Amino acid sequence: MKEWGFAWREAIRRLVSKAFTVQYPFVSVEAMEGYRGRIEYYMSKCTGCGLCALVCPAKAITMVKNDKIKPGRRMPVFDLARCCYCALCAEYCPSKAIKLTKDYHLVGYRKEDVKAKVIE
Amino acid sequence: MSSFNVYIGPIHPALKEPIGFTFEVEGEKIVKANVNLGYNHRGIEKLLESKTWLQGAFVAEHVCGICSGAHHGCYCQGVEEVLDIEPPKRGLFIRTISWELERIHSHLLWLGVFFHESGFDTLFMYTWRDRERTMDLFEELSGRRVVYSLSTVGGARRDVSEAFLSKLKRQARYFRERADFYERLVLNDTTVLARFSNVGILSREDALALSAVGPTARASGVLKDVRYEEPYGIYEETPFRIITRREGDALAKTLVRIEEIKVSAEILEWMADHMPGGDVKVKIPPLAKAPPVEVISRVEAPRGELLYYFKSTGGTRPYRVKIRTPTLANILPIIKMIEGGYIADIPIVVASIDPCIACCERVTIVDKDKGEKKVIPKRELIRYSKEWFKRNLKELRGERL
Amino acid sequence: MEVREVEEVISTVEEGAKVEVDKWGRAWVKISHSKLKETLKALRDKGYTHLSAITGVDLIDDNILEVLYHLLPERKDLPYLTVRVTIPRDKPVLPSVTDLFPVALLYEDEVYDMLGIKFTGHPDLRRLFLPEELPEGVHPLRKDFKGSIYKEVVK
Question: Is the pTM of this model over 0.80?
Answer without folding.
Answer: yes
